[in-house]
Inverse folding.
């Protein structure tokens, strides 16, 4: 008798129940996505993975993926008997942060050995990070893709700026005024404006004094 | 039991609808538009909504009355739907044309409409200023008078910047292309022309002159 009543109830409310079930499935991911609005996805790779992580001095669950408000944040990874790492980073786009802590004691070395795979993964990602840094440098200094450039009248090359290794200083070497003028024209022909770069003329003395 | 179930269902349904509506409401953002001194109230700036396109040529066709969102004549803060826009101020007798794309997203933005004088107005001012500006160059670099020709030059922005070039006088037969051209930039401060480029340079860059508007450096380089 009870079974029959239950079946009737389910049959009578089958549509609302299906809707309810549907909403129970749909609403949590919608709420999760809404809570991530305006935040930046940050993938974490910690070695050892047991290390603690704080963001702006607040401990966070160092799960593999975090959603962080855009802006400058201080990340600190630490674990007893390992050298802590602290980085101040501007988070403005999705990225992967790698923290590989150096063991300070024999016990820590044993722990590191246990998580050898995590360390290998951080090494691989560090290599990729270096590649990404190179890409970022080329993006910030697009002219370097044309350099060095050699011609009969002039050479154009670059060096890293003294106080900012993410910035290229364009170096023009030419023995004549024509060469210097052609070099500046060549930069414009490539589609770059010399005003956007620090430009220095090698083996050249400005007749008005000072140096360029 | 059924009553409670119905109530629970209604709450869940309402919650679901609220969540979906919130997700569908277009996000807005603040755009603060300010006029550089002396141009407020004297010119119109139009704000057009455009399609997401990076190319100027592509958005030109969106600058129609249908896409016009606001016409402004004074400093204003708008709270508008996020997305790409273009601000356009037409040239008139006093001011040069202005056009700037704005991509409104997660951060509020402030755009300053420059009070850049028209070429005609600057050209008229130049006839009165040239002698004093050239005198300032010669005072700073006496050799500029003896060994170099000072080109006619140009005034920029509201006439407070003057840029010109120095080319070697009488370079000698066949030597014309073997002489450098030096760029000189001056700024009018308290009614007096002050030489900024010390020394005159082959090329002006934003790294050496961070306080000079980049478009002025580029314009002087192109003289």
């Amino acid at each position: 008798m009870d079974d029959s009543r239950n079946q009737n109830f389910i049959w009578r409310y089958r549509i609302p129940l299906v809707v309810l079930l549907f909403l129970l499935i749909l609403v949590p991911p919608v709420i999760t996505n809404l809570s991530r609005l305006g935040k930046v996805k940050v993938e974490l790779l910690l070695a050892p993975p047991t290390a603690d992580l704080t963001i702006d001095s607040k401990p966070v669950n160092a799960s593999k993926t975090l959603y962080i408000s855009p802006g400058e944040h201080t990340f600190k990874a630490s674990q007893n008997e390992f050298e802590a790492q602290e980085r101040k980073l501007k988070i403005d786009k999705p990225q992967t942060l790698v923290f590989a802590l150096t063991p300070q004691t024999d016990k820590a070395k044993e722990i590191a050995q246990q998580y050898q795979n995590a360390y290998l993964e951080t090494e691989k990602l560090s290599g990729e990070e270096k590649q990404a840094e190179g890409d970022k440098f080329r993006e910030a200094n697009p002219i370097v893709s044309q350099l060095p450039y050699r011609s009969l009248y002039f050479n154009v090359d670059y060096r890293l700026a003294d106080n900012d290794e993410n910035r290229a200083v364009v170096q023009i070497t030419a023995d004549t005024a024509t060469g210097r003028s052609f070099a500046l024209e060549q930069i414009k022909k490539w589609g770059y404006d010399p005003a956007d770069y620090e430009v220095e003329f090698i083996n050249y003395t400005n007749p008005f004094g000072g140096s360029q | 039991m059924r009553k409670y179930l119905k109530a629970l269902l209604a709450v869940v349904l309402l919650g679901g609808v609220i969540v979906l509506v919130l997700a569908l409401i277009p996000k807005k953002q603040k755009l603060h538009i300010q006029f550089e001194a002396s141009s407020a109230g004297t010119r119109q700036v139009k704000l057009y909504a455009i399609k997401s396109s990076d190319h100027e040529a592509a958005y030109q066709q969106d600058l129609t009355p249908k896409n016009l969102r606001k016409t402004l004549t004074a400093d204003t803060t708008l709270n508008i739907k996020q997305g790409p826009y273009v601000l356009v101020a037409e040239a008139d007798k006093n001011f040069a044309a202005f056009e700037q794309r704005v991509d409104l997203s997660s951060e509020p933005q402030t755009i300053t409409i420059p009070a850049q004088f028209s070429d005609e107005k600057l050209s008229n001012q130049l006839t009165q200023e040239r002698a004093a500006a050239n005198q300032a160059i010669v005072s700073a670099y006496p050799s500029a008078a003896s060994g170099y020709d000072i080109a006619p030059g140009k005034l920029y922005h509201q006439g407070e910047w003057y840029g010109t070039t120095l080319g070697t006088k009488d370079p000698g037969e066949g030597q014309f292309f073997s002489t450098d051209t030096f760029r000189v930039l001056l700024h009018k401060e308290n009614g007096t022309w002050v030489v900024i480029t010390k020394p005159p340079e082959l090329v002006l860059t934003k790294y050496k002159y961070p306080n000079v508007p980049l478009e002025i450096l580029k314009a002087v380089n192109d003289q």
